[in-house]
Amino acid sequence: MTVRVQREDFDIGAELSAFTARNTAIGGVCLFVGLVRDMTGHEGAMTLEHYPGMTEKQLQRIEAEARDRWPLENTLIIHRVGRLEAGEQIVLVAAASAHREAAFKAARFLIDWLKTQAPFWKLEHGPDGDRWVAAKDDDEQIARQWEAP
Prior knowledge:
Distance between the termini: 27 Å
Strand content: 25-35%
């Protein structure tokens, strides 16, 4: 179970190799890689800010919730901060389980809750200046599917 917040890029292949190393109980891995989109049409960039310490604790809570809900062999959350250009990797989420269904559901839960529950702030840089990116109602609605009945 790994949670990392970092400025550096990550190597998906190396992360996946380390993630599954020597664990023969893993029958399926589901992963999601998020990229910085060009929201401006002019190859824009984004700066991600966070509160060190608080952010990692919240990501660990999200990861623990996934482990409580599904039989997981391993989880991984890597989220980058700092200035990122359009096309760069921003997040890697992975879930491993003996069976694919748990891996799919847990990975989806992790990214959905990360989008709505993790304390990251996004400042978009474009030709018309900088603007803070507001939370999207769509993301909130998607995350609600995971709330306890």
